[in-house]
Write a structure and sequence with these properties.
Layout (H helix, E strand, L loop, with lengths): L25 H16 L16 H43 L17 H14 L8 H13 L9 H10 L4 H11 L14
Helix pairs in contact: 2-3, 3-6
Length: about 200
């Protein structure tokens, strides 16, 4: 079996880095540099197979890593699609429930949702949280979590400009159901919304 190319960092062939975390000071940097130099000067000639068979070459292990990465990617995409389908199902359920509720036609008279019915406001919240998401960077993450918990509790959060966006869409003749159908027809990516209350 051929020895690895000593003129390069052999572990980079696997997409790895010599140090996972950046040294915090001169002493830590010196330690990391020393370890790096030792590893670079002593590339392995082969890898154990793990099952008692013949040792594996660099090319063999790179192929195994690539295959494992491809499988992980397929699993991730499959899980994401299942999650997205569940998000779509729950979103439709929440919208239909809000528009069919006993107080769905009650007009909101105060606050930023004023002039929109309660059912429509809740439906718009679910649409916009899923298809026009905000709040994935601190402190927005806390605002998003609190707003979603509030929405699940039956309140109508006034966050991220959603009342104004809903009013803009309504003035253009777009209603919650039509908006969601349009987004689905476009194949728009749906943002993850925790389906149970989360810590704030």
């Amino acid at each position: 079996m051929s020895r690895f190319d000593a003129d390069s960092d052999w572990w980079e062939k696997f997409g790895l880095r010599a140090d996972a975390s950046k040294p915090t000071g001169p002493y830590e940097h010196r330690l990391a540099r020393a370890a790096h130099d030792v590893l670079r000067a002593h590339p392995p000639t082969a890898f154990a197979s793990g099952d008692g068979a013949a040792p594996l070459s660099l090319e063999d292990v790179v192929a195994l890593v690539d295959a494992a990465a491809a499988e992980a990617k397929r699993e991730h995409e499959s899980e994401w699609e299942r999650d997205a389908e569940e998000q779509r199902r729950v979103g439709w359920e929440k919208i239909e429930d809000s528009l069919a509720g006993p107080d769905a036609d009650d007009q909101i008279s105060i606050g930023r949702w004023a002039g929109i019915s309660r059912g429509e406001a809740i439906a718009w919240c679910w649409n916009l949280f899923q298809y026009e998401p905000h709040g994935f960077v601190h402190p927005g993450t806390e605002v998003r979590a609190r707003a979603l918990n509030s929405l699940r509790a039956g309140d109508i959060p006034e966050v991220f400009g959603y009342p104004e966006r809903a009013r803009e869409l309504k003035e253009r003749g777009v209603m919650p159901r039509e908006y969601r159908r349009y987004r689905e027809a476009l194949g728009s990516k749906i943002a993850p919304v925790p389906l149970a209350p989360t810590g704030e």
